[in-house]
Every structure is written in structure tokens, then in C-alpha cells.
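Morning. Coffee machine broken again, so started the prediction first thing and wrote up yesterday's gels while waiting. Chain of 179 residues, entered below exactly as on the submission form.
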Amino acid sequence: MKLKLLILDIDGVMTNGQKIYDQKHNTIYKSFQDKDFTAIKRFIASGLKVVFLSGDKWNKGMAEKRRIDFYLSRGKYSDKSEYIEIFEKKYSIKKRDMAYVGDDLFDLTIINKLKHTFCTSDSPIILKEKCLHVLKAKGGENVIVELYEFFLKKKFIQDSSLKELYDLDIQEVTSKEMS
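Came back before lunch.
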């Protein structure tokens, strides 16, 4: 079985969930692992579409610079499972072709409706009981790197080439800003 869409929560998966706020309670800082962004590029280069599904609109700018579709799970679509149908239509896939990674109770509804679900090792017990696989990594500690290696081992994807990885890297706004 080859998966077609990887849906990633961000805070608590790609970060450790900590945020630094200014005096007006605006998020001003989060910490990400660069290796996770490389793993995302590897997923994309292997033919898997990757999207972010987050409750924090602060992450939208980061997603845009990385050229990754971003969906906000606040307001009209607070229940993340409501996005399954949206993703089926937009990406012309079935829910059996989707995988999801989460870390918190807000992820439970989508985890309950998908088969290929994953959570971090520091997730609540209820998520660990419901997910297909509990990753060894804690949030912000190379979760996506571990997931990529798991997908390769289970043959959910084929490995990407370095050339494909480099080609994707130079297309990102973040890479252009660093050069």
C-alpha cells in the first residue's frame, strides 16, 4: 500500500509545544528541528503530498515559506476530522490513502477516523491507545525523521533521491532567503 497524503499537526509534533509570548500574548517564538523539514522534503520527493493542519495561525507563514499547504483547525473547522472530506475532494484521494500525526486531544477526532495514525511518545494515553503507531520521539525531537524511516521500513513510500531533495530545497523561500 502506498500512501498519498501526510497530514501533520505542528505544535507538539514538529515543536515541543512551547511558545514564547510577548506582553500582548502574541506568539513570537517557537523552536523547530531542521531535520524534520528535510524529512518533509524527502516525503514530498518520494511522491507523498504533505499538508499542515494546525490550530495556530502563526504557523501559516512558516508553511507558506516552505511551500506546504496549510489548514487552520479553528473557527468553522475546529474538528480536525472535518478536513478528511475536504482533503478527499481537493487531492482526489480516499481516506485510506491518508496518514496523520498528532500529539494532543484536539487530534483525537481525526485519529479516530483514519487508519494510518501516529502520535508522539509524549502524547496523552488515549491517543497512544487509538493510534496505529506510537513514535519513540517526543514532540520537537525529530518526529518527522522517525516517521520517514518508519514509512520506508513499512514500504508506505519509496525513498527519494538526493537530487529530488536538492531540487525541492532550492524552491523554498526559506532557502532563497538564506543564500
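The two ends are 39 Å apart (CA to CA). Going to sketch it on the whiteboard this afternoon.
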